[in-house]
Amino acid sequence: MAVMVDVLPGIVIVLNAIVLGISSDVAEDHVVWQVFNVFFLAFYTLEFIVKLAMFGWRWYFLGEDWAWNYFDLFCVALSWVEESTTWIVRAMSSASDEPLDLNAMVFIRMLRLTRLVRLVRTLRFEIFYELKMMVLGVVSGMRVLFWAMVLLIVIIYTTGVAAKNMIGQHEPEFRDVPSAMFSIFRCFTDGCDAYDGTPLTVYATTMAFSSSHLGTESKEQARISMPG
């Protein structure tokens, strides 16, 4: 019983995702994939019926796992809609001897992608306990990642404001605060170039040298202008 409730559905869900990926590249409309689709749909439908017969509708819709059960039922309903739509569109196309309608095919492809949503269901199975812990760890780390992004934005903002006020009049990359922030962000991500392709580090070195040279000339002129 544990195999039927836990291991087997998880394996079928993973197999369904693998078949979906392969069929997207290899003979998408081949009859083999249609057989697989019918098999998966029959399995999910049978699983729903078996659970309902074994545990009753009260447990299924109001029990401890009611959220997962509603999710399963939603996925089964989407699968039926996808399969029905596919057969109807193909039947209409065969009857009229016209190619499949593009909008209908896009709709079918979108419904087909919903099969991947079933992978979320694997998190409830004990066989995928380690995977569940990894996912929970990633979700828990999102808060730390959020504050790390806030810190990065604060650093970029303060540096951008300083750069705009110091060199914004001379460099178009820093003409305003948003442009300065974007230029600094590009420097963080290995794209620290000016609009003409020159590295901004060259501009910074040139400006520093010019400022130093200008300061030296000013001091020299002041010394010369001083009375003997």
From TrEMBL:
Pfam families, alphabetized: Ion_trans (PF00520)
InterPro entries noted in UniProt: Ion_trans_dom, VGCC_Ca_Na, Volt_channel_dom_sf
Keyword set includes Cell wall biogenesis/degradation: no
Domain of life: Eukaryota
GO molecular function (one): voltage-gated sodium channel activity
Domain Ion transport span(s) in chain numbering: 11-189
UniProt KW keywords: Membrane, Transmembrane, Transmembrane helix
Segments traversing the membrane: 7-24, 30-50, 133-157
Main location: membrane
Gene Ontology CC annotation, any one: voltage-gated sodium channel complex
Subcellular location(s) per record: Membrane
UniProt membrane topology term: Multi-pass membrane protein
Protein name, UniProt field: CACNA1S protein
Organism of origin: Symbiodinium natans
Gene behind the chain: CACNA1S
